[in-house]
Amino acid sequence: LRKSSPDKVGFIRYFSLFLISVLVMLPAGSLIIGRIKSYYYNRMEEEAHGLANSYAAKLETAVSASNIINGFLNEKISAASQVVSYFKDEISNKKLAELARVIPVDVIYVYNPQGEIISSSNGKYIGWRAYKGHPVYDFMMSGKKGMIGNIRPDSETGIYYKYGYYRSEDGRFAQIGVLSEKIHEFLKGFEIESLLEDIKKEDYVDMACFFSAEMNSENSSYYCADNNISISEKAWEAMARGEEYWENIEVSGKNIHQIIVPMIVSGERIGSLVIGHSTEKTDELIRTLTLISNLSLAIMFIFIFAATYSIYIRNKRLAHYAYYSPLTDLPNRRYYDEFLNAELSGGGKEKKAVMLVNLKNFMLINMLSGYHHGEQVIKNIANSLSRLENDNRRLFHLNSDRFVFYVKGYKNRKELNDIGAAICRMLREVLPSDNLGGSVGIIQVNKFSGDADILLKNASIAAQNAQERESFGCCYFNNEMEKKLKREEDVISELTRAAETGEGLFLEYQPIVELNTNKIYGFEALARLKTERLGLVSPVEFIPLAERTQLIVPLGDQVLKMACGFIKRLEIMGYSDLRVAVNISGIQLLKEGFEKKLIGIIKEHGVRPSSLDIEITESVFYDNYDEINKKLAVLKKEGMKIAIDDFGTGYSSLARQRELNINCLKIDKFFIDKVLTHKKRGMIMGDIISMAHKLGHLVIAEGVEEEEQRQYLIDHHCDCMQGYLFSKPLSEDAALKLLEAEGR
Ligand code: C2E
Ligand code: MG
Ligand code: MG
């Protein structure tokens, strides 16, 4: 039973929120970082574009200058070769040296048609012969008139030259060489390299190259402001196609973001600018950003986790407050309702029962010993009762003085009796005072038992019944109890109406007869309730209910008014010596200002107070002796007679009668009946009568039904009697008729 509880606060339900936020935020974080990365790469690309555009014009000039100079050089070499070929005769080395100085070029070689050097400007290599595969040999065999080659190392010295060749009519040919160093020196002013160096100086450029458009042709050229250059195959292809391209490459252990931008000048593509930028800083930035974003995510997760956890803990605590008694930490009324309704709807074949433990007069402890003590007693009771809990029994603390056991799977009624007895034993130990008590109402659950609330209500009815029988006891609920309760509810609702409107309430009058003369002494007014719904209801039933609900106060007022009305009628008819007795309940009497109100009603009706008698029961004196006695003194002084009703059924202290402000004793029917059965015991009555006479009290015998009883009362000098022997209670009119018949 302890496993299923309505107060559970699911951990998973709370933390799914946290998990969802993790699942959403992690990809969101990496997306953001991805975006930042591409933002920076895009910026690099844009900057490369910007640079390419801003340098495009300068590059164009440089490239075209370089091309023009190249052209000049070629022309120069070509012209020089032609000049040499014009020498028909053999040229001496000296002449060649002279020529080389004038032109000027660095070296001139003259070959015979077989490819053998016959003279040279530096006097060297005479007799050297071009061999197969050598560029000179290639020219010789080509049959071309002239040719300008690329810069290449000399096959003998390894020094770089740019060579030109020219063939004369007779088959000889000249080779003219210009040192590459000189070419570079000459080109310096127009060098693309210097432009590239400028580009490289730009903030974020780490590498810059230019590849001319005719890359694949013989005139192709490239210029780099860096030695560390690496161009992938794909990049070459893109360059050849004149397309834009970018890639990340690694050069000497560095990550380089390389961008290739075609350079368009006057609508014509002149080549491609390759710009490389070390991604080191960007990578560093992205790494820092990643770290920051990861850190913030982590902080956020920790925060969300902490918040969720604290909400979870708080709600758990709130659920505990909502479902447990703060005093005993036992499950409370709400828990009981939800738990039991779940149990009841769960079905199952096991027997189930609800046992309500109700403490009697518990408020007394609070009032007499203080609330702290009261709470301690409740805690002790809870501790004791918890000892009876096990896997099949669950204890609840509904409110201050009510506990409930839910018992499941018990074998038979004896088991429930044993639990009930154990509960009573425990309660008796904790509640030793006589005025206190505890009762157990038991209800066995069946399919017609109703829900948790109805079960509780019916168990309460059973507990109430147990309480009426003994201080510590158990009682099983049955339908009779419920019927009784329903009847009580009906009567109370009719009483409420009667109290408000007077509807259904009326009086009957029981004649009181003088025993000596057999004449009517007066009448006792008896309240009657007759309604359409319930018919005639006896005062034995409705007076206690009216007392319990305090309705007796307004009802009693109406009774008094009706009785005064009857007295007035009697006076008018000339029966002003007759008295009318009215029953007054202790609750009415204890109400502040009752005496004043009563005197007011009497005055209002214009009757004499000495025509009215008041009947009260002995029990009224139990707790409020002095107060009641003072009030009675006031009424007695006004001329009213005060009678003790049902004398002999309460604690009947004759000794106290002397102090009491009363002047009449009404001996209960119980004693009058004894006259017929236990004659000897009835003898006590003689003593009571003579004692009352000694105190100056009038004595009236109630419920006289037999002639024998009347005779006995006459013998013992009783003053008056009332009972069915003479007449049953009468209506006002019937009472007046009776008086008329008596011949008064
Ligand atoms: P009570 O004041 O002792 O009234 C006497 C009761 O005994 C009346 O019952 C009356 O009808 C009945 N009785 C009288 N003679 C005989 C007899 O020879 N044989 C039998 N069997 N009964 C007899 P009733 O009218 O049912 O009243 C019952 C009780 O209800 C009264 O007892 C009184 O305590 C209370 N009561 C009635 N009316 C009022 C009222 O207006 N105010 C208050 N506070 N209580 C009232
Ligand atoms: Mg009475
Ligand atoms: Mg009585």
Q: For the largest sheet, list the strands in their spatial order.
A: 16-17-19-20-21-22-23-24
The major sheet is characterized as:
8 strands, mixed, barrel
Ligand kinds? ligand C2E, magnesium ion
Low-confidence stretches are 215-219
How many β strands by DSSP? 24
Shape: rod-shaped
Estimate what percentage of residues fall within beta strands: 15-25%
Please give the alpha-carbon distance between the first and last residues.
Answer: 80 Å
- Rg measurement, Å: 65 Å
| SS field, number of helical segments | 24
Structural class: alpha/beta
Share in helix: 40-55%
Task: Round the mean pLDDT to the nearest integer and report it.
Answer: 87
